[in-house]
What does this fold into?
Amino acid sequence: MIIPYVHQRSYGSILRFCLEALYHSSNAVNVPIEVFISTSDQNTSLPILEPPESVLLHSIRAKSPYGAAFNKSFLLNRAYCYAKKNSKLLLLDADILVSPEALLQGYVDLEVYDASYLLTRLNSEAYAEYAGGCVFVTAEGYHTAGGSDETFVNYGNEDVDLYDRLVETCKVFRANGSAGLNLLEMPHRTSAINPANRAYYERLRQQSKREREDRRLELQQSLNATCFDCYRKQEQSK
It folds into this structure.
């Protein structure tokens, strides 16, 4: 389970609520989980709750080459490198509360399970269309898709781009929105979508099948290089 985290005012309490929901859900359905909180904040203490026995909690701090800009893809890729390669990953935004039902359903034998249709904002209707935020994917499937594209900086379109590639390379099951309220997005101040991200994503949508395949290979190679760098730093720290 990977939670990319950026320190913002009020986001600390949101992360605590997110972890509390995960701990409760893990215990309720007797599903042991391993949680990676990935952040590029070097000096901020993480608002981490003590996990129960069913949860193994890690915090990963990686210095971002993108400066102060938030890069969700960078955080996801770094955390992927520390996860077991035969594991099922949950790519989870820190502002989402996961119910026991959603957690249990996501760990069945599916290559990709997108629970986004079950996501509801407080005091609003369920999402009609959404990609990202809460996606279960095998580690192998994440790698095959090329991981998350770090060209997307700040907010917007990185989730949709990754989801597009998962659809092309994996068997994706999307949860039915009528299945009930299984996920809840906590309200908080949001940042505007980076217009450069939107323009980049629109260019990607115009690519041919061959161009998309070439891009996935390039992203896979970049992800492999990232994992090698993480492994080298781990060895050096021993």
